[in-house]
Design brief:
10 strands, 1 helix, 134 residues, 7-stranded antiparallel sheet, 49% strand
């Protein structure tokens, strides 16, 4: 996966991601992870500047409505997390790479929101019906 914060799509387009994950020993560990989607960026340039990395997948979970799957995990030296939205046939819809989120190890669904938990117990809640994540 690209080694830079971003929401990457299979058509080589991307959106900036702003994610600040508290550290394992930070007083805020176990709290919500802030997540904000920014504007478009040049994916080819980002890959050329930052390279790519391998990741480990910790879960792949079906969405409650049957429209696809969520996958998550991490890589690097334990600081990189990723989430991927897959269609019903497991083709990639998008992948979010977050350099300071830590690996995501679990997922559960609450209505239209999906809650991801990283290996520090921090939670990230996303509304998968938003236009950027749909």
């Amino acid at each position: 996966m690209p080694l830079g914060d971003g929401l990457y799509r299979p058509d080589d387009t991307g959106l900036e991601l702003h994610v600040e994950g508290p550290g394992a020993y930070h007083p805020d560990a176990g709290q919500p992870v802030p997540f904000r989607i920014g504007g478009p960026f040049d994916v080819a340039q980002a890959v050329a500047e930052h390279g790519v990395t391998g990741v480990d997948t910790y879960f792949q979970s079906p969405l409650p409505d049957g429209s696809g799957w969520m996958s998550g995990g991490g890589g690097g030296m334990g600081n990189i997390g990723y989430l991927a939205r897959l269609d019903f046939d497991c083709s990639l819809r998008w992948v979010a790479v977050m350099f300071r989120s830590n690996p995501f190890v679990a997922v559960h669904h609450e209505g239209t929101s999906t809650v991801f938990t990283n290996d520090w117990g921090n939670r990230m809640t996303l509304d998968l019906t938003s236009s950027a994540l749909g």
